[in-house]
Structure formats: structure tokens, C-alpha cells
From TrEMBL:
Pfam families membership: TPR_PATROL1 (PF25761)
Protein name per Swiss-Prot or TrEMBL: Uncharacterized protein
Highest taxon above the source species: Eukaryota
Residue span(s) of domain MHD1: 234-377
Amino acid sequence: MRVQMRISEQIDSRVRRALLRIAAGQMIQAPITNFLQLGRRIESIVLPVELLQQFKSSDFPTPARISNPLAQQLRQIIRGAYERPMETGKHSEAVQTLRNLTMQLACRSSDDYAQDTCHWADGAPLNLRYSKILCSTMKSMLEWVERGLLAYHESFYRGNIDLMQSILSLGLSAATILAEEDPRESGRRKVIDVAYAKVDVYISWCGSSNSSFLFRTRGTAICFGINELTPAVIQVLIAADKLEKDLVQMAVEDSVNSDDGGKSIIQEMTPYEAEAVIVDLVKSWIKTRVDRLQEWVDRTLQQEVWSPKANRQGFAPSAVEVLRTIDETLEAFFLLPIPMHPDLLPGLMSALDRCLQDYILKAKSGCGSRSSFLPALPPLTRCRGGSKLNGVFKKKDRSNISQRRTSMQNTTASNDSYSITQLCVRVNSFHYIRKDLEVLEKRTITHLKSNGIREGSFVNGSRKNFERSLVACVEGIQQVCEATAYKLVFHELSHVLWDGLYVTGASSSRIEPFLQELEQNLEIIAETVQDNTIRTRLITNIMRASFEGFLLVLLAGGPCRSFVLEDSSIIQEDFQFLMDLFWSNGDGLPIDLIGKHSTIVKGVLPLFSSDTSSLVEKYKSLMIDGNNGSSTKSRLALPPTTDQWGPIEPNTILRVLCHRDDKMATTFLKKNYNLPKKL
């Protein structure tokens, strides 16, 4: 302060010493008066007079600069005083007279009682007119306080919120002082009256001008410094909505007596619409969670190995994780303290349903299907006619098997990315997801009931939202079971079925090798697939593929296979062995299920025990009745391959004739179709 007032250390030291002498009563002996005595109280000292008596004008150099016009005016006054200077010595008569007059004014009392306290600045000639200065100061303080209170959202925050109480007290005190000094007041107002009036004004101003602040902070997440929606943020928004309604109500009540009834104020207060903001934030929260889940699905499926040893149940860890994430997302959703759970739940479940459906579709993609594992049917050929191989496979015909094996490998190479057990793990995973979705739906209904929502208002919608995943699970189980069966029969066991069965003759290459390896694989599948229903479905598909493979060997096995009438009993017996494997003395598939899927094979096998002439006549009759032949031509038209084998299907009978090793069949095929003996 001394530096700011440009007071030198020398002057400061001189003033301090003078004040000490005044306080201690260490004055040089002067004429004794009632006002100058040793050890008197500090309240009875008139400080300006004492200082005037202690100093001379020469003790203080002129502090003002020449450029200051006020300082120049002061110097003119001082020069005028120099012309008739007043003697200010300690024993000066003029000083003593000034002292007596000053003390009389300072010690005056309105009730004629003597006082011990001197009001040295009260009244002329040393009156500083402090009232005007004080009022001006109080007005400035009050304006500053009101600016801060009206802009409270900018002036105060959590770190300085305690300061609001002090500032409010300061403002009320300043308002009280100004009210006391206001000449328009008809009397001194009580402090509590001024406080009530000012508080009402502050509330009215805040209600009419600052309610729209909520609207200006529409970027709620940014305003509160958060990056993710949490229950705490929802509570803040709900509180903001309640605050907005309260402020609007206050503004309406304060403006009810205005000309327009407060309509102009209400129009200026743009509503924040907290509920709409909450809905938008929850939707953004849902999108963020779903996007994370989708990214996780894409990343995890690329790393999933589908190992049956991953857990005891035999399903993929990724299936467990994706369902756990969905469950946690729903749990977090219901923890949000919002009133619109039923309205937003369908959107959330639909998005989660799409993610789960995508997981299932990607998990089953690349597993193959029935058509991808079935071998391409070779062109029709005829046997040599009576030259039975008798168990010896001619060297020149081995190229046919090699070509057929190469064709088979090319057909299944693109689908050989997973083993049989890995495909079984997929089936287990789909079944696990389907079962857990039912539990998840029940848990969701429980959450909604706990929020006081009736089951009828949401159960239909929730089931519809999860329907895509449930349908994908059912289709996935069906597709992968079928792919597993046909992969096993036509790819894993092709060396003992397609490339081995009846190749060197019916009696020398029977079905036992195929049955042995098939039984081993069935045991592995039974250990891998835990659920009885799914295991039965998978083994049923394997049985159906085995029956179809057996028929393909008989009807489309190529020129390396030929049969005579005597081979029909061997074929019948081998097929019975195949059915017995799946029956397994009552421990396997039900006998009626086996009979249902063996109907086609049982209908075709009697054709191999029919003589050639009856087959030819039957074939001609079917072709003529079906308008497949022409009466003007000697040759019959080639029937189309329908992939529907049967005892009265022309293409089936024609293929039996193609594999019939006798002269009559060879002559018939040569005459009507000119079929070659080899490829």
C-alpha cells in the first residue's frame, strides 16, 4: 500500500514515530489542558490535530506531479497560505484555539451527556462528507453482488459454492445501508424487510431470465464432462427437468399481474425437453453398446477354433461370451433410472438380436451343405456284357477311380476348413444360444415387472424382436447337422464308400470297412454332442446321408462297378448291416425312424434281383406312358436325372441296366443310346 501511494520510507518512518509518541502520550511539556495529559485513552485523541502539532509543512515534500491539474490547484492554495502562514508550533496560540474548537465539535452529544469517544470526522470544519462516499461505495458493491448472483451459473461452481452465502450477505447488507440513507423512505426499514424484498427480486429475475439456460446447455454430455451415459447422468437430467418446470412455474406466478399474463416470458423460455434428450442419449448409448458388440463378434469369430475341449459342455467360448455381453447390456439398460424402459426396450433388443443373428450366420458360413459334399454323377456307361471281373480290377480301369477321387476332392476342398468335431461344436453352440435366449427373455420380463409394467404390454414385442436369432439357431442347427453328415459320409469316409464299396466286385469289397469307420465317428460324435435331441438329429442326418451314399454307389458308381443277379442278396445283406448299425440293438435310433428313411433304398433294391428282360420291358413301358419315346423312331429318348430314385422312375431303372453285367442289357443300351463301355 505504501508503494502504491508513493510514500517514501523516510516519510513512513516519520509518521510511525509520531503515531507512537501520540499513543504513548510522550509529548513535550505544554500548557496543561483537559485534553492533553499523559496516559489518556486513544478514543479521546483527535488524530488530525495531534498530527498537525507533530509535523511541519517542510517535513512532507510535494508528492503530486506537475502534470496533474489538481496538484497544481493545491499548490496555488498552499502558496496563498504561505503569504499569511499560521504558526503551527507546539506552543502556538492558533493551534490551541483550533484544538479547543475541534474537541468541542468532536465530543458533542445529542443528549447533553459527555462522551469519552471523539468523532473527529463528524461535522465542519474537518467533515469528509463520508455519507456520499459510503453510498457510492455501497451502490458499487450492490451492483457487483447482483451481477454475480444473477449469473450464478457462470460465477459459482462446486469449488466455490460456499462463497455464494457470503456474497448474498454482503449484498443484503449494502441494500440495507442504502435503504437507510434513502431520503424517500418514510422511516428506517428493518433489515429483514430489505432482505425479503431483495430475495424476491433475485428469484423473480432468475425465474424469468435464466430458465432458458437449460436449453443453451443442450450438449448435456459435454456440459457435464461425461463421455458415457450412466445412472448418475440420468438423475441429473431428471433433476434438470424438474428444475425447469419449477422455474417456469415461478416465472408464471411472478408475471401473473403483467399485461400479457406472463406469455412473453414463457415464449422466451425455450423448453429444454429433458425427456427427449434422455431418449436421444439412451439411443446413443444403445448404439455404442451394439457397435462394440458387433466389432467383438467380427473379431472373435476370426479367432474362434471351435475346439470341443474348450469346456465340458462342448460349445464355443465365444457363444458364452456373446450371451454374457447381451445379458450385461440389458442389465445396464434396466439400471438406468428412466421411465421409458418399455418404449426403448424393443429397439435395444432388436439391435442385440441383429448382432446375435450375425454371429450365428457367420459361425455357420463356410460349413458347407448337402449339395457341396455330394459327388458329381459320372456319365452313363454300359458294362462289357458277361465279362465279370471276378474280384480282379483291370489296370486300365483304375484311371476311372483316380479321376473320380480327384473330382471328389475338388468338390469338397473348399469345405474342408473344419473337422467333424468342430462342426459338432457349432451345433452345440447354436443349441446353447437357443436355450439361453429363452432364459434371457424370462429375465427381461422379470426386469419389466419389477418396474411396474404389465406383461401383456411387452411380451409379444420382445418375442418378436428375438425371433430372428431363434430362427437363425434352428436353421443353423439344421444346416450344420446336414453338412456334418454329408461331409462325414462323402468326404471323410469316401475312401471306404465312394472309392471302395463294390469296386472290385460285390463279394470282394463289401460294406464292412465303411461300417467300422462310420461306427468310430459315431462314437466321437456321441461324446461331443451332449444334448440328446441334437445328437439324435445329427445321427439321423448321418443315416440319411449313408443311405443316399449307398444308393449312389449302386446307381451312379461309374463303369468300375457292375452287378449280376446273384449280387442282389449281397447288396440286401449289406444294407441290412448298415441299418443295424444305426439301430444298435435298440440303443441307437428308433426302428420306425430308420424304416422311414430307408423306404427309398428298400424300394430300389428289388430292381437288382429282377432279370434283365423284365427291367427292359418295364423301362420301355414307363418311357412310352410318359411320352418320353417316339413311335416314329426306333430309339428311346434319354430320361432326365431327377435325383428322385424309385422303382418306377425311368432314370433309376436305366442306371440299374447300366450296371447290369450281362449281354442283353449291354445290347439294349448300345442300340438305344450308344453308351460307351468306359469313360
